[in-house]
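Entry 12.
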Amino acid sequence: MHMLACRQVYNPPVSAQNTSLLVVDGTLIAGNDSTIIKLSRTRNLVDTLLSRPELQAQVMVIGEAAETFPLLDQGNGRYVTDQLNLNSNEKYQLRIILSGGKEYLSDKISVKQTPVIDSLSWRQDSVGVHVFVNTHDPQNNTWYYRWDYAETWQYRTAFETFFDIQNEQVVFRPPDQHIYNCWSFANSTNIEVASSVKLSQDIIYQNPVAFIPQGSEKISIKYSILMKQYAISSAAYEYWQNLKKNTEQLGTLFDAQPTQLVGNIHCTSSPDEPVLGFVDLSTIQSARIFINNTSLNYWNYIPYYNECGQKGFRDDDNPPANLDYYFPPTGRRDYVLLGTDMGTYLYTTLRCADCRDHGGINVKPAYWP
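Predicted 3D structure (tokens):
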């Protein structure tokens, strides 16, 4: 006997009452680094908008001695200050006033001192490259840690060109306009926390914090990771652990079940209103490493321009009157000049010879060796 089955869309019975909650994302940084707080709203499961930023709010840090440190509204729900000169012996709160007048206030937070990162290391196996962090607090005061990171990687396109066409004339490209090498950037999206509380000493050893899958473009030439480390409270650790389970470890019958998230931010005008987010306050420590493709055993990178090959360029006799068709003086160009000889023009598409067409920039970062 054969059984027939069909699939149907399942729309879970989600309450419409709590589909627009305030989300507060960010860490208050004491000392010489920027603090960025992002405000947004939760969305219904069927919403097509990728995000709903909370605009035109007033965001500030207030101290027990009534000091106020305002954050600048940069638009799109981002509120920033370059530096918070805070007293490590004082407690502080994050205060948010929305454009409609609603006020939100965090619990009082102490400044935590983050120990330095002892080292970053990496190891390659059959599935990719794993990055590890090592740190410790000789005073045994930290015990709970969180990390995020920024990645940078260099990549190249198929063909290198030293030429361009300006005003129907072949010219050499200045060095700052070369388009063979580019750099791309990404920030971490996973939640990385760890605790040494079960150990006799406050030591974190070879804790995995990042992973680059086998064959990724990120290590096709050279890769860099800037690791940022934060000391967090036990309450923050529990919050991030629960959030990690809810967002990264659910999906099968044997995974952890969803946990109700309880943050440390409250609506003072509507105490029963849930608010998503946990704000902590600490100094920050960072470290950077580079990984070269030449240091890997076998990476098996397949370039994004793989279809270019020998058929990726054209060799045509283009009379000068037709140059504007391929290389218009204004607007977007779809072709790149590779060379010319006696009136014959060798050219190819942007994808094959302009690395910027792949999303990166052709300006080498200041920290790049």
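Annotation: The chain has three helices and 24 strands. The mean pLDDT is 89.
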